[in-house]
Amino acid sequence: LADAQVDYLRVLLEAKRRQPADDVYSGLVQAADESGQLSEAELVSMAHLLMMSGFETTMNMIGNALVTLL
């Protein structure tokens, strides 16, 4: 599963590099490219952290809301 996520993020980041949009991943790619201080592996790692932190927060909020309603 982790390999599939990394592959997905590499494709996503390359797409954002070619066609930037007004989103977090495009901003991350742009900042990394301008500074030149992040390797591709570090860029993918940061994107993965963003993706998983958003997922976990949402998952916990839904769980807490259900517990509150019960």
Automatic annotation (TrEMBL):
Biological source species: Pseudomonas aeruginosa
Names of the cofactor(s): heme
Family as reported in the entry's similarity comment: Belongs to the cytochrome P450 family.
UniProt-recorded name of the protein: Cytochrome P450
SUPFAM superfamilies per UniProt: Cytochrome P450 (SSF48264)
Annotated GO MF terms: heme binding; iron ion binding; monooxygenase activity; oxidoreductase activity, acting on paired donors, with incorporation or reduction of molecular oxygen
